[in-house]
Amino acid sequence: MSDVNIAVNGSSGRITLARPKALHALTTAMCQIMTEALEAWWHDDKVARILLTAEESRAFCAGGDIREALALAQNANPQNANQAGDYFACEYGMHMLIAAHPKPLITIADGLVMGGGAGLLFHAQHALITENIDFTMPEAGIGLFPDVGASLFLRRARGHLGLYVALTGTRIGVGDVVASGLLPDYIASADVPNLVAELENLDAEADCEAVIAPYRRDDAGAGTLMAHIDWIDEILSLPSLEAVRDKALESTHELAPALAEALTKRCPLSLKVAHRLLTGAVPDGYISALMLDYALAWRMMNYGDFAEGVRAAVVDKDQNPIWTHKSLEEVGDADIDSLFAETNRPSFAYSSLLRKGH
User: Fold this and answer.
1) What is this structure's pTM?
2) Of 37, 206, 303, 334, which sees the most CB atoms within 10 A?
3) DSSP class of residue 83?
């Protein structure tokens, strides 16, 4: 059995993540298989739409397989992005195809969504979640940054909620996802089998949104973080993360301790990168966003924080990473400017279907 299953049912292409014991975490091989299917269906007249789901488990996708990503990144060369070992090129290239695909692409996320799983969800034309959504971007806790185009989709959230999630790794449910505007509504988990069956039985020329619409629900509730959005917006509008941390340390607000702890214990370089990514210039599209992510990922490898974060979180599991920078103050503006510099950026050759302007 493959970790991802590919099928064509009627006029619908079907991609099913099938690695439940690993919470459907994405390996390079899985990304390659999905990329090949997406490219094959691009001009296949027999495929009218694409469904992306996961086998039943408590997760839709827990992101990239960080053990594999670390091993491949340590041995690959960003100047030769065509090699099989370039995990980031493989994953980001797949997300580009999802974002650009000419066929309606419907992702149904029923459960945990982290990191790379968010790319599978938010880049889809029809991004559907259930009441079981458990969403976060945890990368700043392992020495990376909110990638896979988060510089675009996290900005959909009202105010600074997306930035708060990126900095703290807070997990949010359906109420916050919908109330913040990350997504407009949800569908009931119990309805997923019927919806999938209807979509797979559609005629090639049928409108899939007409089928989805009756399943959409708008009763998700107010959410937990959104109840504090005014405080989140006020504190994250301060001019620097150092100022945010200091204000949180003084604040009596119920969210203040978690924010202060995140800005004290999580990777300082990652926090500064996340802040620039979500408050700086907005990329002009998904290709620009993912190419920026690629350059940032490779440049951050030079600091060693990702290796240390993975060691502390999943190898030794001591939860005590020793970051390159000991505090936010040690990360200067010049460090962040260098990471974001447009000159000599590592890049990769994404799908020829995109380069041809489709």
Assistant:
1) 0.94
2) 37
3) S
